[in-house]
Each structure stands twice: as C-alpha cells, then as structure tokens.
Amino acid sequence: MSRGALSFRAVRKVYDPEGKAVLALDGVDLDIAPGEFCAIVGPSGCGKTTLLNAVAGFETLTAGAIQLDGRTIATPDASAAPGEDRIVVFQNGALFPWRSVMWNITCGPVMQGRMSEREAREHGLKLLARVGLKGCEDKYPNDLSGGQKRRVEIVRALINDPAVLLLDEPFRALDALTKSVMQEYLLELLVQFPKTVFFITHDLEEALFLGDKVVVFTSRPGRIKEVVSVDIPKPRSHEVLTSPRFLELKAALSAVVHTEAMRAFEAGEKEMAR
Length: 274
Ligand SMILES: Nc1ncnc2c1ncn2[C@@H]1O[C@H](COP(=O)(O)OP(=O)(O)OP(=O)(O)O)[C@@H](O)[C@H]1O
What we know:
Layout: E1 6-15, E2 22-32, E3 37-41, H1 48-56, E4 63-68, E5 71-74, E6 86-89, H2 101-111, H3 117-130, H4 146-158, E7 164-168, H5 176-192, E8 196-200, H6 204-210, E9 213-217, E10 224-229, H7 244-273
Parallel strand pairs: 3-8, 3-9, 6-7, 7-8
Antiparallel strand pairs: 1-2, 1-4, 4-5, 9-10
Helix pairs in contact: 2-3, 2-4, 4-5, 6-7
Adenosine-5'-triphosphate binds next to β2 and α1.
Family: Belongs to the ABC transporter superfamily.
Domain ABC transporter: 6-244
InterPro entries: AAA+_ATPase, ABC_transporter-like_ATP-bd, ABC_transporter-like_CS, ABC_transporter_ATP-bind, P-loop_NTPase
C-alpha cells in the first residue's frame, strides 16, 4: 500500500468552554504506516475521539500538526475539510433509515460524481456479498440487525476507497458473539481492501486482536503512554485469543491501562471535590 501514512507531531488541543480551559491532548507524537491497523485505548476522557476528529477534519488543533501522506491536514491555522480520503465510522451509526441499503452505500460516490449509478451499484453489490449481505441491497436499515447495519456502514466507507478508515468504537453496542464475528469480517475485508485504520476501543482484547499496534493514552491530558507492537501474524482468527502470546500481551496491556484508568478516576474524584 502506498498511501495512508499518518503522522502526528506535538499535537495539542485545549477546549475552552466558558473560559474554563480543558487540556484534552498534550504533545502527541505518533506515526501510523500505510496499511497499518492502529488501535487506540485509554481512559475515558483522555482525548481519543478528539484526536480522531482532528484527523477527520471535524476539530481544529491548538498546536502541532497532522499529516496524511506528507500533506498537512491539520494545524492550529487550518484543517482540511472532511473528505473521502478519511472516512469515519461512528459507534452509533449514521445510516439514513428512510433510504435503502444500496442508496446508503452508493450515495456518496454517485453524488460526488466519482461513479455512475451503475458502477456504484455493481461495486456495492460486490462489497455486500463480501460481508455476507447478499440480497440485502433493497432492505432498509431498520430491517437489519445491529451487526448487519455495522457491516453496511463499513461497506459504505470502503466504497469511497479512503486512504484512512477512522472507527470510533464501531462494535461497542453489539453483543459479544456478533462483535467477534464483526472483528473477523473487518480483518478479512482489510486483506481484500487494505487501508490504514485508526480504531478507538475500550476493549483490550479487541485492540490486540485487530491491531498491528496498540497505542495506550494516559489519563487526561492525553499523551502517549506506551505503544505495544502486536507481533502475532495476520490473518488472525479467534483461536489466537487463547494463545500464550496473546494472553501475555493482554496481561501487559491490561496492567498499563489499569494504572491510567485509576489515575483518571482519582483525578475525577478530586475535580468533583473542588
Ligand atoms: N466540545 C468540547 N468542549 C469542551 N470540552 C470537550 C469537548 N469535547 C471534548 N471535551 C473534553 O475533552 C476531553 C477529551 O474528550 P474525548 O471525547 O476526546 O475523550 P475520549 O478519550 O474519546 O473519551 P471516551 O473514551 O469517554 O469516549 C474530555 O475531558 C471532554 O470532556
């Protein structure tokens, strides 16, 4: 893969609601290689979504810079508008319920004039078949299960052929079984359609199962505490979850995250006591 290199340099973000400054991110330096799956974990409120939003173009920076393939996409002075090179899949989904699955998938490339309706439909049908949704193209989102909706959303993102996929806890609302199936679907799709992935999760097992690396953030202000390289070969199936190496990585990751979660909790208690 030749595109999708993300680099973060000294990224800082201060929110200033009603003059009470909230330092969300402070000095984040990170490189994500083209085609790399980077899972982001860290305590609640440490700035994970803020960082994702800055890449997506929804949030400005207070200091620092983010580059995509050498092109600066965010600085304090400017941020590149959201575009089809960086697509977000949200945890609560964002399908239009009154439109068919096919419409939801193809509206982006068709409206932007990048594909004819026929081309988009053909491509959409192919992608739906790859995620086990053959025959669902004329259904409406509310006719689908949570897992099926999530697959439609991922197909909708992939049809745009983005350089970077940004996923903010996409499987959070799913039951454990559906979630594990979705994780395998995602890995399989990425073999067929390689993308750089920025994936936020609170689930350490999910981070290790999917990630080439797992970035652990400190409690707020978010800084990078540790980067864990997941040296388990891909393709991975759920059998790896019980392998000695997986369990070893999980124990180490869990210890780091737990320390930070405790810090975040104590900081929250102090703030409440003020
Ligand atoms: N628009 C905003 N205005 C003011 N403060 C904000 C705003 N958005 C986020 N924050 C604060 O910035 C910090 C980081 O928020 P963010 O949502 O990025 O954290 P997070 O790590 O994604 O949290 P979670 O894991 O709970 O989703 C939090 O303290 C949050 O309250």
